[in-house]
Specification:
four-stranded mixed β-sheet; 49% helix; 26 helices; alpha+beta
């Protein structure tokens, strides 16, 4: 079973792990301010790359090479260890280590003489990152970025860690070099044991054919999970706090399906605190990656496309439950942020904004009291109360992070203002601050377009369209889908991973196929254009051909056309982004219903059965699997709207419908199994079906919603 086989690693192997793990450094609270780069004229091999992260290192004195056969062959030929250093453009501590170590000539001299250094953008090459992250977590029980792994010339790791201060990094390099040259047999033994551990890390057994799903499993999941709830501030009862959209997506669906008032209250607190805290950019919209404290006050200021795409989905769905107008504002502002700061001229979405500007984390986003007084004038008095320009909002170096701890309605009542007046004043004040902030030096932009993250944004826009009916959101989703089809389809009919500087490259991974398929299904349900599910089915069939593990019925992360790494991973855990396997299981489930395809449905159920034990024991790590589990144990409604005004009725339906359903429809005859023979001339009729058995058709949305209770 998953993870349990790790216990099979011998005591001796763990002793080796302990003995070689000389230093396992992690970021301290003390920061090092980075200065601007002053590159010399000599570039290393990264100069020909398109990744902004790799190009940041192109003028380091370290002789970096990109990952590839050339670097591996060089290490083998010269009998040198590999340094595999993984990071990403928005990573603050990656910048710190670059400035301290990789721009230092003495460090570079050691790296160049005794090692073959390889730089990897984890967002371009998540396959490499996953393998070496597993290795570091096995060695140190911790992980993070920058990720620095030292490996034998064939790529098998023997040492690793995260951030290292300069002197520690130099000492570590020399000690590992000495270990390798003086005890090569021990290095080989250790590499073999560690590779074995990596291969056992995600071992999953195929479930028996008689596996049953039950609501009791999800009850048990919640019982163990809710011990980690922070009922005062929302989220988990520890810091740092990540938004984890998949977790709250599942809990919201479960609360709706079971009508659990306590869970609904917890989720409301969480959603309110996340969007009112410093995690959310009140001036420019959009969420930062995580909060460093329990209050959601102090963010780690980098902004990622994948977080914002999923949070747009989450707050759109939450709006339908809570009818909180502030959630609509969050969605509107977050989409505006993505359009303004993360969108290309041809409607591709960029990856991220850095946490740093001018060498300081958060400098672009924080405010001095005097600055706010000057900008806001007479409005400063109420603004300072609402956004805590006081001891509570003070961060460091006299800077304030804007955050709220109450709703606008509550504040307006306390200040004897009408809500309409406060909303107007608040909008004008924030617009003024946005204008002033635009004059600052901006954080660096990672301008590569990742296929999977763009697909997340399509789904987010479709969810926002469903909740609010704004046609601009659907139009933007369609434009981005067309961008994917123009720029990210490879000549063989598969997908590329990334597009940057006019170049599309890297054979796509399972998450790319899974999330694009999910996005196409969302586009079908939003438009009733069957082109999108035809495309989705084509991608699923391609994935089945090139990614399948025939034994377990799960999917490998990499294609059978990719060059082999030391281990071919299977991604199972739902993290900040759900696991590619859980997304594929959802896709098979939905396409199975759309096409009445028993093979798709059967494989989806086998995949879920394989994961049932982990859903029950560790819900927060398998929340997207839990959503699929819920679809299998509670009624799953197939809603068909067919007739001349089907799209208008569908728009009204989406704005109200919650829970487990799949929406399909047509304004003409269709051959899809559930749509066949249901089209009628004139006003559309709505059919609510469960497992192909339909209730009597109705003419209006309220009647259809009653049939789903």
């Amino acid at each position: 079973m998953l993870y349990t086989s790790l216990r099979k690693l011998t005591t001796a192997s763990w002793m080796i792990i302990t003995s070689i793990s000389l230093i396992a450094c992690h970021p301290s609270k003390k920061d090092t301010t980075m200065k601007d780069h002053h590159p010399d004229k000599k570039a290393n091999a990264l100069i020909n790359e398109t990744s902004p992260y790799l190009l940041q290192h192109a003028y380091n004195p370290v002789n970096w090479m990109p990952w590839g056969e050339e670097a591996i062959e060089k290490a083998k030929k010269e009998n040198k260890l590999l340094i595999i250093s993984v990071g990403y453009a928005a990573c603050h501590w990656c910048h710190v280590m670059e400035h301290e170590s990789f721009e230092d000539s003495t460090v570079a001299a050691i790296m160049n003489e005794f090692f073959v250094p390889i730089k990897v953008d984890r967002e371009e090459r998540p396959d490499i990152d996953q393998v070496y992250m597993d290795a570091v977590q096995l060695m140190t029980q911790r992980g993070g970025w920058p990720l620095n792994c030292i490996a034998l010339p064939d790529g098998r790791p023997i040492f690793g860690g995260t951030y290292f201060p300069k002197e520690d990094w130099k000492n570590t390099l020399l000690k590992v070099r000495d270990f390798y040259t003086q005890s090569p047999e021990k290095a080989e033994e250790y590499a073999a044991k560690l590779q074995e551990g990596i291969s056992l890390y995600e071992l999953v057994e195929t479930a028996s054919d008689d596996t049953e799903f039950s609501t009791e499993t999800l009850e048990s999941t919640l019982t163990s999970w809710e011990k980690d709830f922070d009922y005062q501030y929302g989220g988990t009862n520890r810091a740092p706090k990540f938004p984890m959209p998949s977790n709250y997506n599942y809990l919201l669906r479960y609360a709706q399906t079971t009508d659990n008032p306590e869970l609904k209250d917890y989720l409301r607190i969480t959603l309110d605190r996340m969007s009112r805290g410093g995690l959310y950019d009140h001036v420019g919209g959009g969420f930062s990656r995580y909060s460093t404290d329990k209050l959601w006050k102090v963010p780690h200021f980098e902004k990622m496309l994948y977080d914002n795409a999923q949070l747009i989905s989450l707050y759109s769905m939450a709006y339908k439950e809570y009818k909180n107008e502030e959630y609509k504002t969050i969605v509107d502002q977050s989409i505006e942020f993505v359009q303004r700061e993360l969108m290309s001229d041809d409607y591709g979405f960029y990856s991220s904004l850095d946490a740093d500007s001018e060498g300081e984390e958060g400098k672009f986003y924080v405010w001095k009291k005097e600055e706010l007084q000057t900008i806001l004038g007479s409005d400063y008095k109420w603004f300072s109360k609402l956004y805590h320009i006081d001891r509570k909002g003070l961060w460091e170096h006299g800077n304030y992070i804007l955050f709220k701890d109450q709703s606008l309605a509550s504040f307006a009542q306390k200040e004897n203002m009408s809500l309409e007046e406060l909303v107007d004043k608040n909008d004008k004040a924030l617009d003024l601050l946005l204008e002033k902030r635009s004059e600052r030096v901006r954080p660096p932009l990672d301008d590569k377009c990742l296929t999977s993250w763009n697909a997340l944004m399509i789904t987010g826009l479709c969810d926002a369209y469903g909740a609010f009916g704004d046609e601009e959101y659907l139009d933007l989703a369609l434009k981005n889908a067309n961008f994917i089809q123009r720029k990210l389809i490879n000549p063989a009919g598969g997908l590329f991973r990334t597009h940057s500087k006019g170049i599309s490259k890297i054979n796509a991974y399972l998450d790319d196929y899974a999330l694009v398929t999910e996005a196409y299904i969302a586009l079908y349900s939003a438009t009733f254009d069957e082109k999108w599910i035809t495309e989705a089915k084509s991608l699923v069939d391609y994935t089945n051909e090139h990614f399948s593990n025939k034994e377990t019925q799960m999917f490998y992360y990499t294609s059978d056309m990719d060059a082999a790494l030391i281990h071919r991973k299977t991604e199972l855990n739902d993290n900040v982004i759900p696991a590619s396997n859980s997304i594929m299981a959802h896709n098979l489930f939905q396409l199975g219903h759309l096409y009445d395809n028993s093979i798709y449905k059967g494989r989806s159920q086998t995949m879920l059965a394989n994961m049932q034990e982990y859903v029950e024991k560790h819900g927060s790590a398998y929340s997207n699997w839990a959503i699929l589990y819920q679809k299998n144990v509670f009624p799953y409604y197939e809603v068909v709207i067919a007739g001349d005004d089907a799209k208008e009725k569908a728009k009204a339906f989406r704005a109200k419908a919650k829970g487990n359903y799949l929406l399909m429809g047509s304004e003409k005859e269709s051959k899809l199994p559930l749509l066949e023979l249901k089209y009628v001339t004139g006003s559309a009729r709505i059919y609510v079906c469960i497992d192909k058995a339909c209730k009597l058709p109705v003419d209006d949305v309220p009647s259809a919603l009653k049939q789903m209770k």
